[in-house]
Design brief:
With 503 residues, this protein is an alpha+beta fold. It has two domains: 415 residues, 2-Layer Sandwich (Creatine Kinase, Chain A, domain 2); 67 residues, no CATH class. Helix content is 39%, strand content 17%. The protein is built from 16 helices and 20 strands. The strands form seven sheets. Strands 3-6-7-8-1-10-15 form a seven-stranded antiparallel sheet. It is globular, with a radius of gyration of 22 Å.
Length: 503
């Protein structure tokens, strides 16, 4: 879809008999239990979470005071590198501990179905490592691909999109706010109950797991006072040409269709922005609207714009869909797939959302949980219902409710099991992730640091940097073919120097 994109998932972890104080250490142990080929050591070159795309750097990031519990364990005296426990895998992915959560960042992808396969491969990598940890300590280690523990904490599923830097930041933020506020109508993972409220208001089913935790319109923060539009400026590419849109407001999807539609629709909105289009929708209070949209299964509520008129969530999404259809319909098969699925979802949400149960997480979960809830006469925020909500996201195929639906043929698939198996050990062939994975697999002994935009390795007594910043377009495929035949590190170095990628 004419750009690189990827997904970073922080997985929920529960270890029988242990409390939150132990989660960081257990998350580290899970990551270190990875048995596949990998190298250690992350290269933070070009990364600064405080740098804002609007042209300034904040002094510090907001931290959640509730996270203080994580600073009491034995890990507290470790170095940042030890605590992260980074493993960079042969498929180009990154597997590490992020503040008490095993996190899997897919390799850069250019094709939606590749991304789906690599997102599913991440589930297998994390589950395998968790099972090894479980066997080592004799305790059950359960992993959830979700965004809430139902006790006031949220952990993220972040998306990353390469985009052109020339797009005005004011236009970018203004166009993305209504889109992200309403995207959960098809991209939400579903949630039983409402957090941080009590009484009747908590007895609801929501479309989104993250909506309860979005607090401001735009900022660089990710851990507290979270924004709908994250403005962190870490391009992981040539800074003068590109920026990387870092999206933190989305849910962790189990459904392959929901994952592809969420990312595909966002890519088309970014393409619109790069082509000079800006959204005519301007919500008066996007953050409040996002929460209300998440809690409205009727899809009839309208949300006030700056000009005084009001729009329903489906109307907001249609404004983006119609603009994308007008400009990009017929461009290629993948774009047409996104446009078709986007329109179908909005049409069925207006008529009968239950017909989307085979492709949207929130619908599948709602129907599954509501049947049990009504039989037992329980409110949505009952602990039994929320336990079933968690079980939907259990990535163990023998226990997860989503996988039960999938095995029963109730959920649409986009990729085969063999394609997911391949993604565990093979990087996408058309992005720079292939070069990262190839060097790790063949010459991992020489690698000292690895990052999204470069690899530092030791050769003939000196440290060399393979600069991957420019390798974000189709030029990466040509280099991949050249490097595929390299059998020695000398050949790799010669190829790097010939292509001008050494710094």
């Amino acid at each position: 879809m004419d750009r690189l994109f990827g997904i970073e998932t922080e997985y929920g972890i529960v270890v029988d008999g242990l409390s939150a104080v132990d989660w960081v250490s257990e998350s580290m142990a899970v990551v270190r239990g990875h048995a596949g080929e990998a190298v250690k050591g992350w290269n933070y070159r070009g990364e600064d979470a405080r740098r804002d795309m609007r042209g300034f750097t904040v002094k510090s990031l907001n931290t959640n005071p509730d996270d203080a519990v994580f600073d009491t364990g034995s890990h507290h005296t470790m170095s940042h590198e030890e605590e992260r426990s980074d493993r960079i895998l042969v498929n180009g992915a990154r597997f590490y501990n992020d503040h008490g959560h095993p996190e899997y960042a897919t390799p850069e992808c250019r094709n939606l179905f590749d991304l789906v396969a690599h997102d599913r491969a991440g589930e297998r990598v994390v589950l395998d490592a968790a099972k090894r940890r479980s066997a080592a300590i004799g305790r059950a280690v359960t992993i959830y691909k979700n965004n809430t523990d139902f006790h006031g904490s949220s952990y993220g599923t972040h998306e990353g999109y390469l985009m052109q830097r020339h797009v005005d930041t004011t236009a970018l933020i203004g166009t993305l706010l209504p889109f992200f506020a309403s995207r959960c109508v098809y991209a939400g993972a579903g949630k039983a109950g409402v957090e941080n409220v009590s009484g009747p208001d908590a007895d609801r089913f929501q479309l989104s797991q993250r909506a309860d935790f979005m607090a401001v319109e735009a900022s660089v923060d990710t851990l507290h006072n979270r924004p709908l539009v994250n403005t962190r400026d870490e391009p992981h590419a040539t800074p003068s040409k590109y920026r990387r849109l870092h999206v933190i407001c989305g849910d962790a999807n189990m459904s392959e269709v929901a994952t592809a539609l969420k990312v595909g629709a966002t890519v088309l909105v970014l393409r619109l922005l790069e082509d000079g289009w800006t959204s005519p929708v301007r919500l008066r209070d996007p953050v409040r609207a996002s929460r209300n949209i998440s809690r409205d299964l009727s899809f009839k509520l309208a949300y006030e714009q700056d000009g005084g008129t009001s729009l329903r969530a489906i109307d907001i999404q249609r404004a983006y869909l119609v603009a994308a259809e007008h400009r990009y319909a017929g461009a290629d098969a993948e774009t047409d797939w996104v446009l078709h699925e986007w329109r179908t979802a909005l049409d069925l949400l207006e008529t009968d959302f239950t017909k989307l149960a085979d492709r949207l997480d929130w619908v599948a979960k709602y129907l599954l949980l509501d049947e049990f809830r009504q039989e037992e006469g329980l409110p949505w925020n009952d602990s039994h219902i929320q336990s079933l909500d968690l079980a939907y996201h259990n990535i163990d195929r023998s226990e997860g409710l989503y996988y039960g639906l999938e095995e029963a043929g109730a959920m649409r698939r986009l990729v085969t099991e063999s394609r997911v198996d391949a993604a565990v050990s093979c990087a996408p062939a058309d992005t720079r992730a292939y070069l990262r994975g190839l060097i790790i697999k063949r010459f991992g002994h020489a690698v000292k640091r690895t990052g999204w935009n470069g690899i530092v390795f030791h050769h003939n007594g000196e440290d060399l940097l393979f600069d991957m910043n420019p390798l974000v377009e189709e030029n990466a495929r040509i280099l991949n073919e050249e490097f595929a035949s390299a059998q020695t590190l000398d050949e790799v170095v010669n190829l790097i120097r010939r292509n001008g990628q050494q710094n």
